[in-house]
Amino acid sequence: MRKLEDRCSSQWPEININNERFLNFCSNDYLGMSSNQRVLDRVSRELKTFGFGSAGAALLTGRCTLHSELEVKLADYTGQESALLFSSGYLANLGAICSLISKEDWVFHDRLNHASLIDAVLMTGSRHRRYPHLMVPSNSAPIGKKSFLITESVFSMDGDKICLNSLSNYCIENNSTLYIDDAHGFGVLGEGQGVAYELKNLSGECPEILIMITLGKALGSSGGVVLGPKRIIDFLTQNSRPFIYDTAPPPVVAAAALEALSILQESRGALTKKLQGNINFFRKAAKGACLPITQSTSPIQPILIGDAKVALGVERDLKKLKIYARAIRPPTVPKGTSRLRITLSSQHTEAQILDLINALKEVLANGYKATS
Asked: In what helix (H) or strand (E) does residue 40 lie, and over which residues does it extend?
């Protein structure tokens, strides 16, 4: 078993590990919000008013004005009717899916969905079918049966993206509810609204849609939020066990997300454009260096390697060059598809990205020697 390293965040995009400084290409903090000074100042101010822990479940004493303010502002920002805050994205998926889907219902879900989505579907006991990655299901639920299509927007390990129009059309034709985990799309797609931005551009009718976003990535905080029609959010408030019985997120967690959201809104797309510029710069430089990149145009840029031991060797060699990037192995990814998962931020400089490219080129040209 690999030991967990003592590490703490320092000035983004560097990371301090055992008193050594590394360039960090592993974090999902796509916009650098976790170390943004405005966010830190907001947390400091609210800490004096609300304290740290929420000290109870949401429906008892765990909620404060910051929680409800965050829900209202996220719903408004994404153009959804209502929102419900959970203490993590994992629990948000479990809480929504397990409350809304029964064993009599049918579920169609992407083969490469996140573990939280898979676990939630299995817990429902429903009739479920996993369709090929990024495709549209080839079949549908029997007449009279309620059905759901569940997918990520941007996939966490491959960085590739759904065709929203195709999935929306399928759901309309089959009267299915579309559930989208937008953990890696929110703050990244469109001008920051994530998949909700693309929903506005869909032509014609839209199916019933629920969106789950996480606060621990582009907003640099913690927690998960389910967005959708008010009647469904009201139902979840009264019936979702992970919401009802879990300790509510600390007030300062909501404060951090609120300030990060304000920064994102005020940027009017500038932060996401900077992020996309870094993605484009990395891809162009990586192609020039003949690195084995995929078709991903998101901040998640996998370097496919295949063998798990070899992937670990690449990770170790990069650490010798002061680059922090992690190898991803089964069961997180299918056998034979182990990879280095590179993540980019709006806060990276072109010089830092070139340092990464040069380190990757050196390590990969070295024949993966650190495999023993």
From this structure: helix 37-50
Range of the domain at 125: 53-266
Residues 160, 217, 298, 338: which is the catalytic one?
Answer: 217
Q: From the candidates 24, 99, 156, 296, give the one annotated as an active-site residue.
A: 156
Q: Active-site residue 246, yes or no? A: no
* Domain boundary pick from 266, 281, 310: 266
Structural domain contains residue 87: yes
Over its length of 372 residues, how does the chain's per-residue pLDDT go in tens digits? 455 555 555 556 888 887 888 999 999 999 999 999 999 999 999 999 999 999 899 999 999 999 999 999 999 999 999 999 999 999 999 999 999 999 999 999 999 999 999 999 999 999 999 999 999 999 999 999 999 999 999 999 999 999 999 999 999 999 999 999 999 999 999 989 999 999 988 877 889 999 999 999 999 999 999 999 999 999 999 999 999 999 999 999 999 999 999 999 999 999 999 999 999 999 999 999 999 999 999 999 999 999 999 999 999 999 999 999 999 999 999 999 999 999 999 999 999 999 999 999 999 987 654 333
327 and 184 together in one domain: no
Q: Which of 161, 184, 278, 346 is catalytic?
A: 184
20 is catalytic: no
177, 210 Cβ separation under 8 angstroms: yes
What single DSSP character describes residue 236?
Answer: H
| 67 flagged as catalytic | no
DSSP class of residue 57 equals B
Active site residue 156: yes
Specify if 64 maps to a domain: yes
* Residue 181 appears among annotated catalytic residues: yes
Is there a domain that residue 35 lies in? no
287 plus 259 within the same structural domain: no
* Statement to judge: residues 224 and 77 lie in one domain: yes
Cβ–Cβ < 8 Å for 227, 39: no
Rounded distance, CA 21 to CA 98, Å? 43
Q: Is 355 a catalytic residue?
A: no
DSSP-derived pairing of the beta strands 338-343 and 177-181: unpaired
Instruction: Please confirm, yes or no, whether 184 is among the known catalytic residues.
Output: yes
Q: Of 29, 46, 110, 181, which is the active-site residue?
A: 181
